[in-house]
């Protein structure tokens, strides 16, 4: 069996999704060198950090963090592109696991009750075949042993892509597009809201607006990258 696997690896070598170099024993989807080189924020260890401050005055946020800083034409961008557009769902789980391991070491996230991904519209979900934020949540859940709820926060409207929009356009584009199926599910809970990348924060703000329909809810935010 090991010989067969060795032959398969010779013909179809496992390559790092970031640098395209061969993966070695124990490495999965991305090599250790690329993971080590990511510009980590370590904001999970700091309250009132730069990410949390982005939401001040927009909604009451308990804590907020991102795994690493996002820059164009870097390893971090290559990884997110592979996750979002190349069908590399396992990468979301791997990065989510790493983010979850960080959160598990922080006292700021020890009372989180439930992990909730930013939802895709059903039409986009069918087209892509998966929600990258759900993949990230799966990895966080594995690391923190906290359940994921991916059905109660829903996207009501399919809005145009945010990629080339400015700050005001992004905010205007996300107003009223999310809702809750059952407000009682999140009542009295500390929710960890998860997305792949934080840019202006308009999408997360719109999600929080829907979540706040639940009584006595607390909201923290975690993303893989921050731009």
UniProtKB/TrEMBL annotation:
Span of domain Phosphoribosyltransferase: 182-224
Pfam families reported in the protein's UniProt record: Pribosyltran (PF00156)
SUPFAM superfamilies named in the record: PRTase-like
Signal peptide (UniProt feature, chain positions): none
CDD domains from the UniProt entry: PRTases_typeI
Top-level taxon in the UniProt lineage: Bacteria
Similarity comment text for this entry: Belongs to the ComF/GntX family.
Identification of the protein by name: ComF family protein
